[in-house]
Amino acid sequence: MKQLKKVLAAVCAGAMLTSMAAGCSSTPSSSSSALGSTAPSSNTPAADSNSPAPSGSQAAGEEPFAISILAQTFATEMQKPESPVWKQIEEYTNTKLDITWKPSAGFDENINILVASNDLPMVTAVRDNKAPVIVQAVNGGVFWEIKDEYLQQYPNLSKMNKDVANNVSYDGKIYSLYKSADLARSGWHYRKDWLDKLGLSEPTTLDELYNVIHAFTFNDPDGNGKDDTFGLAMAADIAVKLQFHSMVIAMGGGNEWEADGNGGVQPTFMTQPYIDAMDFFRKIYAEKAMNQDYPSASKNNIYEYWSSGQCGMFYMSMYDSYGQSVQNIKKTIPEAENDFFTLIKSKIDGSYRCYPTSGWKGMYMMSKKAVKSEDDLLKVLGFFDKMEDQAMQELTGYGVEGDHFTVKSDGTIDLINREDFSTVCGDFGQLQLNWSDNKRTANYEYLQKKVLDNIAANEPYAIANVVNPFISETQSSLGGTLDQMIYDARDKYIIGALDLDGFNAVVAQWRAQGGDNIIKEYSDAYKAAGGK
Description:
39% helix, alpha/beta, five-stranded mixed beta sheet
């Protein structure tokens, strides 16, 4: 338990200050006086104003530094160099950006192929730091080590949370710039107009959650007299990290891995709460209260079911509640209302428990092959440092002043035209680390304020993954294959293609083919770190 608290405290410490948006926003002209320099801008105080500029910094008047970046996109239309926001970022950071946007679907597979071939741009977004191909690439010297002596040269990068960085480290060394994430950021999105029409309330227990899903399927929530709705939209790829594991935790289980009571650790799929979670979704699937293409569905399919008015609920980041993917429904169903809730009382004792992030959500890694010198590495770091300035955080978080926000006499921000903001700014927020919040305060609307309130309120209920700080050599080399065995068995069980004996047989195969070694390696590391 001590180690669990230690790990949770580590991720809590770095997850409290993150941006409200994944899009892009505007740059006040008064902030552009620091154009072309990695020295502190006028709106971001430096830790030491007398310290010299980094050796890789650019002097005023230098040619823009070319940076190639592979980044993730969630937008339907990818941003292009002609974008005025793209140009503002380049001007402010004195760079020439070559950004390749990769969709969320299939992202990890694309990255794995590029990393394995060492055919990388200068900067590559990575979502899973423990993916075998990433661990092997780090061990093979593919990526630059991001030394603390580098980060201390920058006013924003010097604020890296070392506890969160430890969760993405390899044998105590840092090879990436992690993107900070709120600890408790996910929730159950639902059709509020359906809930109100059916005379129901937001569920707080597992039974109430089931009843709402059932009613959204069978009680004609859209009032058209047709059997054309279902309660829950779910995708197997998202379930791995969101819906499914949140249900395991609600059932009283751990966060993917948990203490085994004997000084070691065990995966949750070897525990009863995992079985209970599978049974919950198996029942819903059998009743056709859940999309029947669940095993092959993607995140975009969930949004399509939602926007077309077919489904009444899904589990995703709370930020989606006011984002374009959710608000698109009003283009076809203007009367639709959405809201979200976050906490379900645990089956074991009625306490609140939630599935958290690890204090980070993705990272950027720098290729030694493409970033050819330490001086160039420092210029790349300088770009990310400038992206943390107030001007850039407001550009990617609020929008273009006058178009997407206005500044009140008291200096606070009024947000306007948020749909246009999502279109114009797209995914430029993916270029930010959000290690600190340098934006001016915004006057948020109902859902935006509710997101912030829930993130703060839910942190005490977050259940940590006890193996986050550790590396298992067997997991690194065989984890991809072994994990997929369990995922496939879980999905087959949920859709009724496998019974419990069949699932347990797959778990036995997992153990025999390397799983027991993973358990031992994680348990040894856990014990060495003082786990009880």
